[in-house]
Amino acid sequence: MVEWVAASLPVLMWVGLLLVPWRPWSTRERIEADPNAGSADLSEITVLIPARNEADVIGLTLAGLQSQGSGLQVIVVDDQSSDETAEIAASFPNTRVIRGQPLPEGWAGKLWALEQGKSQVKTPITLLLDADIQLQPGLLGALLAHKRRDNRQFVSLMADLRRTSFWDRLLLPAFVYYFKLLYPFSISNSSSRLVAAAAGGCILVDTEALQRAGAFASLRNALIDDCTLARQVKNAGYRTWLGLSRDVVSLRPYGTLRSIHDMVARSAFTQLGYSTALLLVVTVLFALAYGLPFLLLASASAWRLGLIALVAMMLSYLPMLRYYHMRLTWALLLPFGAVLYLGMTWSSAIRYWRGVRSRWKDRTYSTH
């Protein structure tokens, strides 16, 4: 009896995932560019871009903003760059460049840059945009229309990550997949305060909501600043919304396993609240969900359960692959990707235990 219950666990996990009403595997929360929104009046929006050594991409990001509509104001906060980021940004119309001050103790770099820029925002709506995010023509108009239609004060879109290598295709769609499992969009977008999530690369928010939520000083040391900001805004009584978009394009190349590892490891243990107990729980869950089905395939009496679990697992990943126009056969490698992500999470924890909370943009944030 005990063996049968144990063998049933991965089936319950994966079939249950497919059946839960909030459908975390779904891609139904999405916004794509509206070709008719390219001439939209955007004079009520100021774009706030923190930028540190982004000379290779800032031009493309700003060019993408130029195609969004009329009246858009842009503020680039040059966060102590050592390259030509500021000079490139200053060459674009309707773009102000603010020279950032040295990073104070207790602040994350991106949040300090945003804090310096927010006082210059005079419009009722602010677009927080990463320096490596390019918006396709008509995207901002479509996002603004959704914000108004749905009566939201805070809307954000998860960027389409570039997929140029085997490692990109294996791991980056899975990154979005796992994010949606951890922060179900349907629950986050509801009035429930159980989940609050955002994608920091592209956030359109009422300026008043930012001020009432205490941004950015109230979350100055947060490494997962987007979800923390969404939590603050939601706690202040505002409505948030998070979705996917193929027209919010990340310009940052990954390409190698190491670069993806560095991106994940800088915040994976933070997601677990630096809890060793939670890390062990996650490890056991991954072993049950991804490892046990393969062991069951070798069992004469329980191989069917293993097969059902594997099929349900891959079915849960297919919507993500379809959304990003990828071959469905990549679902076969989902367990391999899961092992790598678990390893990255352990790597993140080991960094923390050695005194490093995170490393990013030539900065190291210690645990002290």
TrEMBL record:
Cross-referenced Pfam families, in alphabetical order? Glycos_transf_2 (PF00535)
Q: Does the keyword Nucleotide-binding apply?
A: no
Q: Which SUPFAM superfamilies match?
A: Nucleotide-diphospho-sugar transferases
What sequence ranges are listed for the domain Glycosyltransferase 2-like? 46-211
Q: Which UniProt keywords apply?
A: Membrane, Transmembrane, Transmembrane helix
**Amino-acid biosynthesis keyword on record:** no
Membrane-traversing stretches = 272-298, 305-324, 330-353
UniProt-listed PANTHER family: GLYCOSYLTRANSFERASE (PTHR43646), SLR1566 PROTEIN (PTHR43646:SF3)
Protein name, as recorded: Glycosyltransferase
